[in-house]
Specification:
Radius of gyration: 21 Å
CATH class of the largest domain: Alpha Beta
Oligomer: single chain
Number of domains: 2
Distance between the termini: 30 Å
Helix content: 25-40%
CATH architecture of the largest domain: 3-Layer(aba) Sandwich
Bound molecules: 1,4-dihydronicotinamide adenine dinucleotide
Strand content: 5-15%
Order of helices and strands: EHEEHEHEHHEHEHEHEHEHEHEH
Strand order of the largest sheet: 8-7-6-9-10-11-12
Number of strands: 12
Shape: globular
Length: 331
């Protein structure tokens, strides 16, 4: 099948080309992200391959369908960047990579917890600068602390297991009970998890119900000085409310791998430009904030699995044999 691959970085080209040896599709790589003005690039491609910040809104989906596209193959687990109703109405199949490595993201969340707690980001530059003092670097024992996991699916369970390994008490909030989680922690209502946790980590998908799940009200319900970690999706958190929480000390530590407006910033080098996003730049001024640019998924194992499952979806769609990991529109 001819596949237009959008937002193609060097590592995408390498991993997809390697995986394609077993499939033999014609992959055409575009560095550009998919958005209304780049959609014509996909004209005549039966399959279009997207990453997390490509925007398949209703307008894009209709132009793709009119140009002959039949399949949207997402190189991600999340699908909040696709208008599923519009895709379905236009006759497009949407496929994703439901699980490529829950370990990659959960381990990254744990890395943020450890780095923030022991101020590794500050210690690193201090020592390189010849400053060997310890003032301001004091952390706390994770052992015995309470960790709240919001969203106890594949990634949340691995994160819960890691934190239980540190000797933490793990609490989970999720409308669906997952027996795998109960091996490492116990469920409680969201309000209780917020009030009891020293560390809160978000592992639920971004949906209309979870947008700004963390806002002024939920932040006020947390323990003063709480550590908040978001490796889920930027829109789960109301960034302005979090900044207020940081200024008041209600939030003691913030670790982000995702950001509400990341489409304008992440996965590109803006180091020679004046960044116009004042909210993001304010976040960077806090010593107790650590931000990574959506790299939770980025391990060798995950990148390989993403490429293999993406192309397996394309092959199964083309041949009608095997499994297409379809995403269906909400009922
Ligand atoms: P999953 O589908 O296995 O688990 C998600 C869980 O969230 C489910 O148990 C679901 O019931 C729960 N949930 C839904 N609404 C909720 C709510 N209102 N409150 C609490 N829980 C709720 O998904 P998985 O694989 O664990 O991934 C979780 C999320 O992580 C993805 O949706 C994606 O947004 C994000 N992600 C981030 C990556 C990164 O690189 N930073 C990479 C991969 C995923």
């Amino acid at each position: 099948m001819r596949v237009a691959v959008f937002s193609a970085k060097d590592y995408d080209r390498e991993s997809l080309a390697a995986a394609n040896e077993a499939h033999g599709h014609e992959l055409v790589f575009f560095e550009a992200g998919l958005e209304a003005k780049t959609t014509p690039l996909a004209q005549g491609f039966p399959a279009v391959c997207l990453f997390v910040n490509d925007e398949a809104n209703a307008e894009v989906v209709q132009v793709l369908a009119a140009g002959g596209t039949k399949l949207l193959a997402l190189r991600s687990a999340g699908f909040n960047h696709v208008d599923l109703g519009a895709a379905h109405a236009a006759g497009l199949t949407v496929a994703r990579v439901p699980a490529y490595s829950p370990h990659a993201v959960a381990e990254h969340a744990a890395a943020l917890v450890l780095a923030l707690n022991r101020r590794i980001h500050r210690a690193y530059s201090r020592v390189r600068d010849g400053n060997f003092t310890l003032g301001g670097l004091c952390g706390f024992d994770l052992h015995g602390r309470t960790v709240g996991v919001i969203g106890t699916g594949k990634i949340g369970v691995v994160f819960a297991r890691i934190m239980a390994g540190f000797g933490c008490r793990v609490l989970g909030a999720d409308p669906h009970v997952n027996p795998d989680f109960e091996a490492h922690g116990s469920y409680a209502p969201l309000a209780e998890v917020l009030a009891a946790s020293d560390v809160i980590s978000l592992h639920c998908p971004l949906t209309p119900q979870t947008r700004h799940l963390i806002g002024a009200e939920t932040i006020a319900a947390m323990k003063p000085g709480v550590m908040l970690i978001n490796t889920g999706r930027g829109g789960l958190v109301d960034t302005r409310a979090v900044i207020e929480g940081l200024k008041r000390g209600q939030i003691g530590y913030l670790g982000l791998d995702v950001y509400e407006e990341e489409e304008e910033l992440f996965f590109a080098d803006h180091s020679s430009e004046v960044i116009q996003d004042d909210v993001f730049m304010r976040l960077l001024t806090f010593p107790n904030v650590l931000i990574t640019a959506h790299q939770g998924f980025f391990t060798r194992e995950a990148v390989r699995n993403i490429a293999e499952t993406t192309l397996a979806n394309v092959s199964a769609f083309e041949s009608g044999e095997g499994t297409v990991e379809r995403v269906l529109p909400p009922e």
